[in-house]
Write a structure and sequence with these properties.
Largest sheet of chain A: 7 strands, parallel
Shape of chain B: elongated
Number of helices of chain B: 2
Radius of gyration of chain A: 18 Å
Oligomer: heterodimer
Order of helices and strands of chain A: EHEHEHEHEEHHEHEH
CATH topology of chain A: Rossmann fold
CATH architecture of chain B: 2-Layer Sandwich
CATH superfamily of chain A: P-loop containing nucleotide triphosphate hydrolases
CATH class of chain A: Alpha Beta
Radius of gyration of chain B: 17 Å
Shape of chain A: globular
Number of strands of chain B: 6
Number of helices of chain A: 8
Largest interface: A-B, 32 and 36 residues
Helix content of chain A: 25-40%
Structural class of chain B: alpha+beta
Order of helices and strands of chain B: HEHEEEEE
Number of domains of chain B: 1
Chain lengths: 226, 114
């Protein structure tokens, strides 16, 4: 028998992309602005998200999904903001994918919502491959991690829309070189918007909230235009 | 290490295609870009595990790595860039504006018995 090559040419993550597209359509139909967060473990995603949920709640209906390999600790922390929160325990899986988001939203999505946040598993490598149907992907980097992190993990920075620099209240203590960090981010993702914040003091959170408000307005505008 | 879940997706896709065409697969030819975020060696070692117990058991995974090409707007030309420095034009050293190839993760072909 002679071997023969049959051309297929299909994207391996096609199933994820199809599911993500479905999620995006659904979020659009329901006018929910969706923001995902990725970073290494310990960058302050949960603290940043807790602060964001708390600050948004007087004006908006918000909810969050949070992914971790084990424990429901983050969901418990985020629940202090009084927003509806659901933990996705991934077991050994190092990232969230569209199917996990889909499964978590079924029988849960508290409607109606203005904002849904999806906190990915702490990992700067794997989440970059998986579209979750979000409108905006944030990559977080804390001042204690080293200014060259964007150069070490360029793929995740390149697939994100905004870089959030967290723990700015510690910047002086760790001699954080903001200019170098910004330059490194720009070199892997030219033109990327950078937001320095401190979840502890609240510094920079006003700029972030304005940005979220704009995202929401933009989404409603697009819905009106349809 | 998300290579196992990628390997499972590859096996699922290849099994589907093989069933549709009614063929027995000896090898799956895969193309991965250097920016796909997938490591070749880890994927190869996950493949046998993912294929076990399916019609693909015993088949091989053949991986072709696709280099990163980018558009340099300063040179006005397509450039092949290095994986460790994929955001810089190797000729003029200015930042490249657009990645043209290197993110692929596709089952390119099935090697089947005639």
């Amino acid at each position: 028998m002679t071997p023969r090559l049959m051309e297929v040419r299909k994207n391996v993550l096609k199933q994820n992309d199809v599911l993500a597209r479905g999620l995006r359509d659904e979020f659009r139909a329901k006018n929910v602005a969706v923001v995902s967060l990725v970073s290494s473990p310990g960058s302050g995603k949960t603290a940043f998200l807790e602060k964001t949920l708390t600050l948004l709640q007087p004006r908006y209906r918000v909810a969050a999904l949070v992914g971790d390999l084990a424990t429901e600790n983050d969901a418990a922390r985020l629940a202090r903001s009084r927003a509806p929160v659901k933990q996705i325990v991934t077991g050994t899986v190092c990232h969230l994918d569209a199917m996990m988001v889909r499964a978590a939203l079924d029988n849960w999505l508290p409607a109606p919502l203005d904002f849904l946040f999806i906190e990915n598993v702490g990992n700067l490598v794997c989440p970059s491959s998986f579209d979750l149907g979000e409108d905006l992907r944030l990559v977080l980097l804390s001042v204690t991690e080293g200014e060259d992190k964007p150069l070490k993990y360029p793929t995740i920075f390149n697939t994100a829309d905004i870089a959030v620099i967290t723990k700015m209240d510690l910047a002086e203590a760790v001699e954080f070189d903001a200019e170098l960090c910004h330059r490194n981010i720009q070199s892997v993702r030219p033109g990327m918007r950078i937001l320095p914040v401190s979840s502890k003091t609240g510094a920079g959170m006003d700029v972030w909230l304005d940005l979220l408000t704009d995202l929401r307005e933009h989404k409603l505008h697009a819905a009106d235009a349809r | 290490m998300h290579e196992l879940s990628i390997a499972l997706s590859i096996v699922e896709l290849a099994n589907e295609e093989a069933a549709q065409r009614g063929v027995h697969v000896n090898a799956v030819h895969l193309r991965i870009g250097r920016l796909s975020g997938v490591a070749k060696d880890a994927l190869l070692s996950s493949y046998d595990l993912a294929a076990a117990g399916t019609p693909l058991e015993g088949s091989r995974l053949m991986i072709e790595e696709i280099p990163i090409t980018a558009w340099c707007s300063k040179c006005d030309a397509e450039r092949t860039v290095d994986a460790s420095e994929w955001f810089t034009c190797p000729e003029c050293r200015s930042p490249v504006s657009q990645i043209l190839a290197g993110r692929e993760l596709e089952v390119f072909a099935l090697e089947v018995d005639e």
